[in-house]
Predict the 3D structure of the following.
Amino acid sequence: MIWNKQAECMPAHELKSLQLERLRETVRLAGENVPHYKKQFADMKLKPSSITSLNDISKLPFTSKTDLRDGFPFGMFAVPQSDIVEIHTSSGTTGKPIVVGYTRSDIDLWGEVMARCLSMAGTTRDDIIQNGYGYGLFTGGLGVHYGAQKIGATVVPISAGNTKRQIEIMRDLGTTIITCTPSYALYLAESAEEEGLLPRKKIKLRAGCFGAEMWTEKMRDEIESRFKIMALNIYGLTELIGPGVANECEHKNGLHIFEDYFYPEVISPETLQTLPEGETGELVLTTLSRVGTPMIRFRTRDITSLHREPCKCGRTVVRMARITGRSDDMIKVRGVLIFPSQIERALLEIKDVEPQYQIVITRPHHLDELEVQVELSKKMFSDEIRHIEEFRRKIEDNIERTINLRVKVSLVEPKSLPRSEGKAKRVIDKREI
Amino acid sequence: MKLKQISVFLENRKGRLAEALETLAQAKINIRTLSIADTSEFGILRLIVPDPDKAKKVLEKANFTVKENSVIAVMVDDRPGGLAASLRVLSDANINVEYLYAFVEKSGEKAVVILRTEDVDAGIKALKTAGIGLLKAEQVYKL
């Protein structure tokens, strides 16, 4: 279902001229009002009038998370604080949090893009949405909330956590759409199985938008087959707006970016040069209509690629591939760069292995060691030690084939690894460097 | 002649074995015999109990990974070479023994071992043909 045909199916030339007009306005707004950009543009002798085509965007400087942190708390605002009606902050797990501000029009914009995302999952005003994203400073909860309200669906603002309650609500209220992190969705499936609601009994769930953390096709299969629902990938980030930058349509071949509001580029994280469409690199996004905190060429650190071949759904906006890693989350073990998602893929290629794992990095004798703890599933358990050992070696071999590094795999008891109610913490780095 | 055995996966973590045994104690399940196979990483606890289905249920409820398997209870002469004679029978019949462990109690004058062969039915047949005594489940629980 397409929420805004005009915007989502716009002919390319119309989209480009709209983007250029909005980009120039954004550059003007940021250059005149945001101290950070004002200074940067002055240093570079850059005038909004020097942007005459979309290609000129490469003249603009990048914005990093550090820039936002340095502006803490209100240094990135383009309007007086009195025009800001809402504030969100990023989790601040890597230092001081970053603050983004929303004007009333920004909140409207957010509701609009989230309504587009939820419509991709088939949401209408008749649906009941169980919103399992955290409400609060985290953007997930309220983002979905605004989109659902725009559509006129019934939102159950249950927020993250309280698994027992989630299951009861799902059953008693007859939830049809669910939104939460994919790892939490799998945790919910586990609990629903224990409560006897799965295999599907007494639940009406039809689809879900899952995001806010990296996940894999295998996890999608798992969520879809356990709940018997359609599981779509949603993308967004606090610095830009929150969830609602992009979402998959029912064809699940990449996430449609709402290009009328967000301008995407993919760059090489090493050379910082813009890469041609189709090539894999770091996603860089520019807001085109945000007023509170306009963002110019924000380096997301997310690794993806852009694709413009026509999609069966009829949308003309570009699609981004599922994120396969983070340019700053890469783990360097014995000099080898590794994405946790590579290990996850290697694990899940093996039959009967469930996606519950943790990567522990240690440096016992001046040499990095990587241990992957994997929960032993019921199907993997055999009465004979050699069968379990074979399983373990198979996992080790498969990981080695994928990342070219021998790791140690430990099998741990089912449900013994910590379950996340938000973003799954997959890597524990115990090295003292 | 098959006997049900409960196997439990134990992560190599302090107190995990005690937790498993306490779970059984709370359910008032009396262990007839047990063995532990262990590697540096994990262990497998194997149990013979009078009510294996109930034991499986309570252990699973306590989040243990449990499997039910068939084993054979073999009576062997309590003298040097008693066990060797039984194993010779299996070896001659080309049947692999996966593992075995002993029973604390005797059955009359005979010692009792719990034995698992790759092919349990073939194991039972070979032992019976050679005239080696096997115990039924009910007999085992009464020891």
